[in-house]
Amino acid sequence: MQLRHVINLHKGATPLVVAALMLAFANASLGAWVYLALHGSYGMLWLLKDRIFPDRQWQQPIDWPGAVAAFLVLGLYWLAPYLLIAAATEPPLALVALAIALNLLGVFLHFGSDAQKHFVLQTQPGLIEDGFFGRCRNPNYLGELLIYLSFALLAMHWLPYAVLAGFGFAVFLPNMRKKDTSLARYPGFAAYRERSGLLVPKLWA
Q1: What is the pTM of this model?
Q2: Between 99 and which of 19, 130, 150, 174 could a Cys-Cys bridge form, CB atoms 3.0 to 4.6 Å apart?
Q3: Can you give the residue ranges of every domain in the chain?
């Protein structure tokens, strides 16, 4: 078993979980449907990504206790739909529009940069210093943070923000630093690091 199998199970189950919450709480509001559309489609896109341009870092083997623990931790992401749907509070339309806009931008950055990295490295190993990576060394993580920020906005509760911050500091930040350490072996990385941001694009360089 690989870690990606656990992640894929969670992503694929998300639209079913959100739909089940809507049925359990008899909540077919606009906010609930928008949440289902955004988070559910993100899960489906993730599964397609894993088939077309998989990420090697999620292909590490994992044992059954580790898999169960990882799935439970990922389940924290389901707090957002639970809080939104159980509370039956309708998010303002302006907030819904902002969440959709952030989600679209996040999907563009996340999947676009992952696709660029996957296909470029197949033929040209080394630094990627253009395209999505021209001003930001981790546009995929920036995109993922924006995606989950859109879910937190719809939930209108502090807990999803805390979950997102926890994943950011416990998973995303260590992975970004590990990537920098790995890329440091390539000539030109020091100059690239100066003109690019770790997470936020350095547009002024």
Answers
A1: 0.94
A2: 150
A3: 3-195
